[in-house]
Write a structure and sequence with these properties.
Layout (H helix, E strand, L loop, with lengths): L14 E7 L4 H14 L16 E6 L10 H10 L20 H7 L3 E6 L6 H4 L11 H11 L3 E4 L16 H7 L2 E5 L1 H8 L6 E5 L26 H13 L5 E7 L1 H7 L3 H24 L4 E7 L2 E2 L3 E2 L18 H14 L5 H12 L9 H15 L15 H14 L1 E2 L5 E2 L3 E7 L7 E4 L3 H10 L1
Parallel strand pairs: 1-7, 1-8, 2-14, 3-4, 3-7, 4-6, 5-6
Antiparallel strand pairs: 2-13, 8-13, 9-12, 10-11
Helix pairs in contact: 1-10, 5-6, 7-8, 8-10, 9-10, 11-12, 11-14, 13-14
């Protein structure tokens, strides 16, 4: 898609959308595009995401104050304040002095502020825009500071530990937020309804519990696992825009695609692809708003860091990304299926294990599995029967060894490689469109983003 955009000199920016793909390096974007292209029978082409059609682009380094490879707290703090800090710290500099975030600064000037994500609303990246704590794991303290921020709109999975990490006898964070003047809505229908009530001044929109009462405070379901009724990032943005626009002359939104990072911590290519496109769908909501207000809107897209050390190619000069369409669920769900299989029967049959691979990864039916590959899976199966198969561990969730092995084999056959289950020092992408978007071209450090947004707003 070609975008013809006129450069607007001295434009008055009234609406800022700041998209952050957590863990989204340039290769994550390219993987998502080349996968869609492969499905359309054009394996050497690219079906572009909306973000890569934006007329201005650049790249940035992402190291923290103390490490060549940043964590999400230090990176988020930098993207929120323009100042590098130590890994693990939120809203504080390396000497623990409080930093002022761009959201706090604009709020003080009368702007409406929205913070939204696909993970917990008190997680590192969203928390970096309103919280000031020495340790990103202080979720309860971060949740308290969310209510104290007086920001207008929050959207996401919910609070990570609303009662405290160890179910402490503390005020529930939802109640704490309500006491601070927030209305809490569960699910998009309730969110839209409450957002239209004039009495609602500040809104928190979260995923509703499922039919079995399971909580979703840590993350929204992956796009690949999504069921009808699950909250989406696009729905959150669609709810936030009219809510903020009806109450403020200007607004600033930080929108995080947080589950890209989760998928890449699991070296799960198919799931990561879904998350990149999912954030792109949310971006289209903002883009439609931009089309209605082109002289006053700025959209900036970037990432906090890259996760997984993603490589496109692991053997010869080919990719077989179309094979990834055979994956029907995330590594997390596949892990749960294998765990349940062994819970029901400590020594299930090899055929029942193969059935899970067939149903969820397409092995043997649509994807050839060599005798050597099957032998390796079978050896792992025998270890699992003896309770000796080790789960694949990453930052967020351990994955059953058989599930992880299946995902790894599928990635290998697609010629997708990974160097780590953690973060890397890869450069992060920048895309921009709208008023003063030309400021975001070229090579940058992540310290440049906030000063450039301020310049765009004030220029």
């Amino acid at each position: 898609m070609l975008l013809i955009v006129a450069l607007i000199a001295n434009a008055e920016v009234k609406y800022v959308f700041y998209f952050i793909g957590d863990g989204m390096g340039s290769n994550q974007v390219l993987l998502a595009e080349m996968y869609r292209s492969a499905l359309q029978g054009e394996p050497l082409g690219r079906v572009q995401t909306l973000m890569t059609t934006f007329p201005y682009s650049g790249s940035a380094s992402s190291y923290s104050k103390t490490n060549g490879i940043t964590d999400s707290a230090a990176a988020g703090t930098c993207l929120a304040t323009g100042t590098k800090t130590r890994n693990g710290m939120l809203g504080l500099d390396q000497d623990s002095a409080r930093l002022t975030t761009i959201a706090e600064e604009l709020k003080a000037q009368g702007w409406g502020i929205g913070i939204m994500t696909t993970v917990a609303i008190d997680h590192a990246t969203p928390g970096a825009f309103y919280a000031h704590v020495p340790n990103r794991n202080k979720y309860y303290k971060i949740g308290q500071q969310l209510a104290e921020s007086k920001f207008d709109f929050f959207g996401g999975a919910g609070f990570h530990y609303p009662q405290g990490k160890h179910d402490d006898k503390k005020t529930n964070l939802y109640r704490h937020a309500e006491e601070a003047g927030y209305t809490v809505a569960h699910g998009v229908e309730e969110g839209v309804a409450k957002s239209q009530e004039s009495r609602v001044e500040k809104l928190i929109l979260v995923q509703k519990d499922d039919d079995q009462g399971a909580k979703h405070g840590s993350n929204l379901p992956y796009a690949i696992d999504r069921k009808e009724g699950d909250l989406t990032l696009a729905q959150i943005v669609s709810t936030a825009i009219p809510f903020l626009e009806s109450r403020h002359e200007r607004f600033f939104m930080m929108v995080e695609g947080g589950m890209i990072d989760y998928a890449c911590h699991g070296d799960d290519a198919a799931t990561a692809i879904g998350e990149v496109w999912d954030m792109d769908e949310a971006m289209r909501v903002a883009y439609d708003f931009y089309l209605a207000h082109p002289d006053e809107t700025l959209i900036v897209v970037t990432a906090d860091h890259e996760t997984g050390g993603l490589a496109l190619g692991n053997s010869d000069y080919t990719l077989h990304l179309d094979l990834l369409q055979n994956q029907k669920c995330s590594a997390w769900v596949l892990s749960d299926l294998f765990t349940q299989l062994f819970k029901n029967n400590k020594k299930p049959s090899w055929e029942s294990v193969k059935a899970l691979y067939r149903e969820n990864l397409g092995f043997w039916d649509t994807i050839e599995v060599t005798a050597e590959e099957e032998a390796k899976l079978h050896d792992l199966y025998k270890k699992a029967c003896k309770g000796k198969a080790k789960d694949a561990k990453n930052m967020y969730k351990s994955v059953n060894a058989l599930g992880a092995a299946g995902i790894s084999l599928l990635n290998k056959k697609a010629h997708v490689g990974w160097t780590t289950r953690a973060h890397s020092a890869h450069a992060i992408p920048i895309f921009a469109i709208g008023a003063n978007a030309h400021l975001f071209t070229g090579w940058h450090d992540n310290t440049d983003l906030v000063p450039l947004i301020k310049k765009a707003v004030l220029e």
